[in-house]
Amino acid sequence: xxxxxxxxxxxxxxxxxxxxxxxxxxxxxxxxxxxxxxxxxxxxxxxxxxxxxxxxxxxxxxxxxxxxxxxxxxxxxxxxxxxxxxxxxxxxxxxxxxxxxxxxxxxxxxxxxxxxxxxxxxxxxxxxxxxxxxxxxxxxxxxxxxxxxxxxxxxxxxxxxxxxxxxxxxxxxxxxxxxxxxxxxxxxxxxxxxxxxxxxxxxxxxxxxxxxxxxxxxxxxxxxxxxxxxxxxxxxxxxxxxxxxxxxxxxxxxxxxxxxxxxxxxxxxxxxxxxxxxxxxxxxxxxxxxxxxxxxxxxxxxxxxxxxxxxxxxxxxxxxxxxxxxxxxxxxxxxxxxxxxxxxxxxxxxxxxxxxxxxxxxxxxxxxxxxxxxxxxxxxxxxxxxxxxxxxxxxxxxxxxxxxxxxxxxxxxxxxxxxxxxxxxxxxxxxxxxxxxxxxxxxxxxxxxxxxxxxxxxxxxxxxxxxxxxxxxxxxxxxxxxxxxxxxxxxxxxxxxxxxxxxxxxxxxxxxxxxxxxxxxxxxxxxxxxxxxxxxxxxxxxxxxxxxxxxxxxxxxxxxxxxxxxxxxxxxxxxx
Length: 576
Description:
With 576 residues, the protein is of the alpha+beta class. The protein has four domains: 2-162, Hypothetical protein af1432, CATH 1.10.3210.10; 215-359, 2-Layer Sandwich (Beta Polymerase, domain 2); 377-486, Ubiquitin-like (UB roll) (Roll); 490-575, no CATH class. The chain is built from 25 helices and ten strands. 32% of the residues are buried.
């Protein structure tokens, strides 16, 4: 037993040293001190705990911290929060203890993580969706809460073998439903890919193994093709004295599975199962120039497919992703995708938010992610529909391809593909969206439902007299626009309902009928309305007129008269 403890302690110490060594961000001496304090606290807190697999529990928070430090590349504060993320939920230590020990910033993130962990777990999809909405609300505190939660989920997915099958399927389904889309939107593409592959492994194990086996069987031929193609590119790029590296990238098992499903094709018919990535060294000033120069060299020797050019250097994705993607006819007449990235672009593609944090300076640091978070917050606060609709809308926008359009001043804006002229109005500003009277696209007046395309220049015409109406919901696709329109319609409905209640009170008084719960119940039955709010609203907008109210009064008085007749008859019978 003593020997086992010694081996375990030795391994814990080794893992700690590795955590510091693999950190993507440069750690100062003060960073290392605070990480040590958090590490010691985590070790003490989890000292008596074991995981389902039988190993010491402390290896889980250390592994999550390693994902945060290396794969995602966050700072010392995040590493500390990852080490302590389960402490409040599972041990004797409180948030106040963490605050005293390692400070307020770390305690705040741990508190956000604890709130997410305490959300009620249920198989019910609507409750799961509601939990997702609540979880996103924590983004308002600190985006690192969600990123560490994604890292926590990734490690849980990597170590699920010892769990019962029903739990594996439940956790994997939730991961596919919530965590993979979030990782995608934050720009954690490698993490998203691993989460999707692991989810498929547990939700559809036969399908996963079948595709995995087919990928392995074609690996030899694929590697030989990549080698030939890379060797040629190496020679051509070296002539121009580029400093670069060329890497092969396999398509993930999950994305192959999705393509087979959506396009209804067999494995053999998927032609982009791999891509080549050219990563070049440069300084910021000649970054774009060199990307296009490499593009020119590649397309001089291999015929490009003009419909498959993706220029995310001139107009980066809203996640911050930058690269040139071209598909060319390679050796043996096979199409192959070539991705061209600078080292900086590659870091942003691999690390997402963390690399932005590293490359931005001053106020610029979090501008992209902040803009996105503010929009999420607005959607959350405006959303009054049911949680499942909200999540479906939100996910649709997370995964949407982007288009790039211009304001009248020439500012470039990115929107999900399929966005309409009205979506653009709401994207610019909530008040502009609400007051949209018309839209000009490329100087021509168009319907609000006009679907935009990249390169369009859009001008929104507003009027103070305009208000959103229900049919506007047919003209928009973005969750932001939908939630604001729904919220605005509900606000309008409330105002009409309040006015309607006063009108009803006056009209019933003139008909000598009291406005009370009993009357309201009878009116709901008579008019076949679902609730009192709906009744007041219909009165407020005039769809229940005086004639209909008099019909109700007649029915009401007859019902009252019949009630008294029955009472009198019953009394007479009892007195006989």
